[in-house]
Backbone:
């Protein structure tokens, strides 16, 4: 129900943005993309960690703050904002990766830094190797990737902040989904054929959709006359241009992606929970 609501909201706000696309109302188009990405990550995490998954109000407070930061980033493009965002980004990355590594032991309160310091000393300084090697390798890659994105934001200061923030969400979603699927296969868990079939269709449709997305025929950052010079003849039914085809194919890709995630662990429904591996 939540996923369908997010998709509907994304369709309505995307339509409102396309009526008169500008740099200021693009945030309408991207807002529900953040929500969908964040909720999909929570859904995948919840499959193996229902006891330590963030509560609904915690998740929505975080997503609300994300949208607030996006709005500020649209109107305030200064080095001070990017430094503030970079510091906040790094702190959030450290918290979420610590929460995932210790499976909820690192809670967000006044004693968080003391607990992180204690676990770092006991796990990494007194032990020859991490307690959870597979999770450790994945989270090191995630931290490296996110730190690089934070540094790039401060140094490059992209003019399109909503797209930058959306890329951060999508990269983390894809990274966690890939980790989850790889760990399933490592532990001998094989999803139903329908899940694999929809997963393959998701990849194929996203590749096709992104081809048309990057084959731009307009540019709202340019004056109307210059943007018009990029226009090309319609490619489908003598009515739909490249961007229309992007929307059509990407909507199919979203559907196949939702089916893939929602059926990912259906083959474990009749398996006792104490026999399901946690990763």
Residues:
């Amino acid at each position: 129900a939540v996923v369908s609501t997010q998709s509907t909201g994304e369709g309505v706000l995307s339509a409102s943005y396309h009526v008169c696309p500008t740099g200021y109302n693009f945030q309408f188009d991207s807002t529900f993309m953040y929500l969908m990405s964040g909720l999909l990550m929570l859904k995948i995490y919840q499959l193996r960690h229902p006891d330590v998954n963030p509560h609904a109000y915690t998740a929505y407070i975080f997503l609300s703050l994300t949208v607030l930061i996006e709005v500020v980033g649209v109107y305030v493009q200064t080095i001070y904002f990017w430094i503030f965002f970079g510091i906040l980004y790094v702190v959030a990355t450290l918290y979420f990766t610590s929460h995932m590594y210790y499976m909820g032991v690192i809670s967000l309160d006044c004693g968080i830094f003391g607990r992180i310091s204690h676990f770092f000393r006991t796990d990494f300084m007194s032990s020859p190797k991490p307690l959870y090697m597979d999770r450790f390798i994945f989270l090191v890659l995630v931290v490296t990737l996110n730190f690089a994105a934070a540094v790039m934001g401060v140094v490059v200061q992209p003019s399109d902040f909503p797209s930058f923030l959306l890329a951060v969400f999508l990269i983390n979603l894809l990274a966690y989904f890939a980790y989850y699927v790889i760990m399933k296969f490592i532990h001998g868990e094989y999803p139903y054929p329908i899940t694999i079939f929809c997963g393959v269709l998701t990849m194929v449709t996203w590749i096709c959709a992104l081809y048309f997305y990057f084959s731009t025929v307009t540019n709202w950052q340019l004056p109307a006359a210059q943007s018009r010079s990029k226009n090309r003849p319609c490619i489908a039914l003598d009515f739909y241009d490249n961007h229309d085809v992007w929307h059509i194919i990407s909507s199919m890709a979203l559907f196949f992606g939702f089916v893939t995630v929602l059926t990912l662990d259906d083959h474990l429904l009749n398996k006792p929970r104490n026999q399901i591996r946690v990763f």
Notes: The radius of gyration is 21 Å.
